[in-house]
Design a protein that fits this description.
By secondary structure, the chain is mainly α. The chain has one domain. It is built from 3 helices and 2 strands. It has a two-stranded antiparallel ribbon with strand order 1-2. A hairpin with a 2-residue loop joins strand 1 and strand 2. Helix 1 crosses helix 2, helix 1 packs antiparallel against helix 3 and helix 2 crosses helix 3. The longest helix has about 35 residues. The chain is elongated. The termini are close together. The relative contact order is 0.21.
Length: about 100
């Protein structure tokens, strides 16, 4: 069972790493909305290209704009947090198989 435990742990760690990176990109998107940055910079365009599909899906499903403030990034951050919480038992399960 050793290879299966290592595989499950690796999948959980990679998933956690990807979610952590997306969390940082989403936080960068939120900070960029507070300050004025040129939208033509390649980094800004990359961040918008990565975050817009997720934010647009949330905006169409649940309108989270109240008083001119968009709360959809907060919903994404909560979703990432809960997904990372669900990966912890998967990692523990993989380590129990070792």
């Amino acid at each position: 069972m050793y290879p299966l435990g290592h595989l499950i742990m690796a999948v959980a760690k990679i998933g956690d790493l990807l979610l952590s990176l997306y969390l940082l990109v989403m936080l960068a998107r939120v900070i960029m909305s507070w300050i004025s940055i040129t939208p033509y910079h390649p980094v800004v365009r990359f961040i918008y290209a990565i975050t817009d599909p997720v934010l647009s899906k949330i905006r169409t499903k649940v309108p989270l704009v109240y008083g001119g403030i968009d709360f959809s990034p907060m919903a994404v951050l909560f979703g990432i947090y809960f997904l990372r919480l669900f990966l912890q038992p998967l990692f523990r399960f993989g380590s129990s198989l070792l």
